[in-house]
Amino acid sequence: MSARTLFDKLWDSHQVVAESATTPGVLYIDLHLVHEVTSPQAFDELRSRGLSVRRRDRTLATLDHSTPTLPPDANGKRPYYTPEAEAQVAMLEKNVVDFGIDLMGWDSPNRGIVHVAGPEVGATQPGMTIVCGDSHTATHGAFGALAFGIGTTEVGHVLATQCLLQRKPKSLAIRVDGALQPGVTAKDLILHIIGRIGIGGGTGYVIEYTGEAVRALSMEERMTVCNMSIEAGARAGLIAPDDTTFEWLEGRERVPKGEAWNRAVAQWRTLTTDAGARYDSEVRIDASTIQPSVTYGTHPGMVVAINAPVPAAADALEQRALDYMKVTAGKPMAGEAVDVVFIGSCTNARLSDLRAAAQIMRGRQVAAGVRMLVVPGSEQVRRDAESEGLHQVFRDAGAEWREPGCSMCIAMNGDLAQPGQLVVSTSNRNFEGRQGKGARTVLASPLVAAASAIAGRVADPREYIEQEAAA
Ligand SMILES: CC(C)[C@H](C(=O)O)[C@@H](O)C(=O)O
Ligand code: SF4
């Protein structure tokens, strides 16, 4: 057989019916993740047709988007933001019982944002096809799985058949050579990439991230990178699995054990792009040139190095974005006054993210007038962080330590910013109103977010890291 890319291998091993000029192919799905927002109509459809879930053992649900991050009151009542949010959660709780599906619900020690909790329990594994009614499903591609978001109608198709109609996308290699500088994180890398290729740069492609800077990333950093593939328009983002992947996965609840683990790893080691395999397109990036980066506009492609001047608007839409953000071309983002700092979301709410932020915040205070929310991505992250005392570091600094959920990433659960407020956020979307009507979002790394909370303005974390090194 001729040389194949990792993506080709994943596709070939899951396409059960080939596509033709007039019909899409049929792809077998190994894992279907479900959350409360995009599943109600899908389950209703099954009900109305008298269908059951085809592979309950390959379906796993969680509660994350609509869940409040404040604890229940003395009567156990949770402070849902709206009756709709509460109904959505109740609906999924009912659906998993009616259809016999596992739910990481309120009483589970594993509940969390779907893209944090799925990998943590070992449901996400190399070589799988993974779907979820959620655009950030590409996160799971960090494990060498073909993972992408689907719509609610397709959620129904997968529930009923465990298959999906798909045409094969093209492949794009993003090769990152060199090494990231101190204070420059995986988040800066992916923001830089989207800034470079644009929000349409990945459209029609599955991206494979390669190169020595990608190999050097931890598993959690790889998830941060793959998470935002959709923000470049890509169908999915992938990183070939290696020892970093296997070490991270070994021993987790849902991965194979004993001899079966060894066999799985041996098979997973074949999941690499063959020498001589061709991508449809390639981009090269030099990691050593990347600075801590932030967004300055209203989509994730409007990215600038934190100390570099904001570029002039190229068109009326960009000018509208600058006006909305109250940002001036020619001035850097560093120094912009900050109202709210949010550390959370499926992009950056894992233990290493919280450690990075805590490193800067330890012994310091959130600036007067700044509100800071730290929201762990899952119950596991919360437990691990609390056992290290990170929650205390954040609380001592004056930040709020919340319960796991999507929180202020999407502002549909009660956590939101006020009109006009500027939020430095570790999430992945900065659209108008994303974090509350009129709220202005600056996407950044946990290091930039923590430094900005302390400074009360958008700040370069290297100022604080250097102080520490000097001390
Ligand atoms: C609610 C859900 C459908 C949505 C998505 O698909 O990504 C959300 O997670 C988001 O981040 O905007
Ligand atoms: S954390 Fe944000 S981006 Fe991630 S799934 Fe939740 S709403 Fe979507």
Description:
This protein is α/β, with parallel strands linked by helices. The chain folds into three domains: 8-166, 2-Layer Sandwich (Aconitase, domain 3), CATH 3.30.499; 170-241 and 269-289, Aconitase, Domain 2, CATH 3.40.1060; 293-470, 2-Layer Sandwich (Aconitase, domain 3), CATH 3.30.499. The chain contains 16 helices and 19 strands. It has helices at residues 6-12, 40-49, 83-99, 114-120, 152-161, 186-197, 212-215, 219-227, 243-249, 258-268, 316-325, 351-361, 379-387, 390-397, 446-455, 462-470, and strands spanning 15-17, 25-28, 31-34, 59-62, 102-104, 129-132, 146-149, 163-166, 170-177, 205-210, 236-238, 281-286, 293-295, 303-305, 340-343, 371-374, 400-401, 422-425, 440-443. A five-stranded parallel beta sheet has the order 5-4-3-6-7, with helices on both faces. It has a five-stranded parallel beta sheet with strand order 17-16-15-18-19, with helices on one face. It has a four-stranded parallel beta sheet with strand order 11-10-9-12. The longest helix is centred in the N-terminal third of the chain and has 17 residues, at 83-99. The protein is globular, with a radius of gyration of 21 Å. The chain binds 3-isopropylmalic acid and iron/sulfur cluster (SF4). The site of 3-isopropylmalic acid (IPM) has 8 residues, from loops. Its cofactor is [4Fe-4S] cluster. One of its GO terms (molecular function) is 4 iron, 4 sulfur cluster binding. Pfam families: Aconitase. Catalyzes the isomerization between 2-isopropylmalate and 3-isopropylmalate, via the formation of 2-isopropylmaleate. It is an enzyme of class 4 (lyase).
